[in-house]
Amino acid sequence: xxxxxxxxxxxxxxxxxxxxxxxxxxxxxxxxxxxxxxxxxxxxxxxxxxxxxxxxxxxxxxxxxxxxxxxxxxxxxxxxxxxxxxxxxxxxxxxxxxxxxxxxxxxxxxxxxxxxxxxxxxxxxxxxxxxxxxxxxxxxxxxxxxxxxxxxxxxxxxxxxxxxxxxxxxxxxxxxxxxxxxxxxxxxxxxxxxxxxxxxxxxxxxxxxxxxxxxxxxxxxxxxxxxxxxxxxxxxxxxxxxxxxxxxxxxxxxxxxxxxxxxxxxxxxxxxxxxxxxxxxxxxxxxxxxxxxxxxxxxxxxxxxxxxxxxx
Length: 312
What we know:
The protein is built from nine helices and 14 strands. The chain has 312 residues and is of the alpha/beta class. It has three domains: 10-85, Orthogonal Bundle (Arc Repressor Mutant, subunit A); 96-168 and 272-311, D-Maltodextrin-Binding Protein, domain 2; 170-267, 3-Layer(aba) Sandwich (D-Maltodextrin-Binding Protein, domain 2). The strands form five sheets. Strands 4-3-5-14-6 form a five-stranded mixed β-sheet. A three-stranded antiparallel β-sheet has the order 12-7-13. A two-stranded antiparallel sheet has the order 1-2. Helix 1 crosses helix 2 (25-32), helix 1 (10-22) crosses helix 3 and helix 2 (25-32) packs across helix 3. The longest helix is centred in the N-terminal third of the chain and has 25 residues, at 66-90. The radius of gyration is 24 Å and the shape is elongated.
């Protein structure tokens, strides 16, 4: 049984959360400025206070127990509430500070967000930005993320809170060199005769929802290159390997230079929406608020994106 007469102490909670996030006592100790032994003792004391095993340790691995996952989620929310309370107490003019962990789609990070990061860091010198580039939908609580950027036609119902930040048009593109020897392309159905480059990190890879198709159904395309990262498609496009449907920010520079051309602009699919996603919004930490505000403002000012109202 745990010691139910006293709550876990704050350093122990912090140590446990860092171990879960880093999957390592050594890395957590380095992050906290402690020794590995000190972190191990703090976590052991926390387990004694709680009365359950939170971590399973072996000489080669570290796993979070089911009880540990639940407790981690509660501990993260507790820390967020404390930071929010401190922000409220200090006033809205307080500087954002601390470590901000954000999950971001890889292509969006490489092709757009990376250019904006220096300005964000300069504007918030007390913040440490920790970006996790990943195209899957990460579990914000289990993986210790403060927020995520997600790009989709719509988000599934969940306990997460989503804030619309902007929208991006999808464009059908190819290189002039490919088009010079390719079949004609006058309607979406003509894509069946073309080599298509297929992005696979979707529920329906190769099912392109172009507007104005016969019967209103998406076109199921085929191709010899399938990849789960849109940036990889750029080289294949430039080499004249085919046609692809991709977010405009992935090829904005190539369209501007004429290296690629847009095809069938009258059949563009509905825009993708860009969301800032958080696990809860009882007290949105100031560091998350300033980041999402920053992204939303830059998206609104950029020619690569449309205001989120156009995606409604």
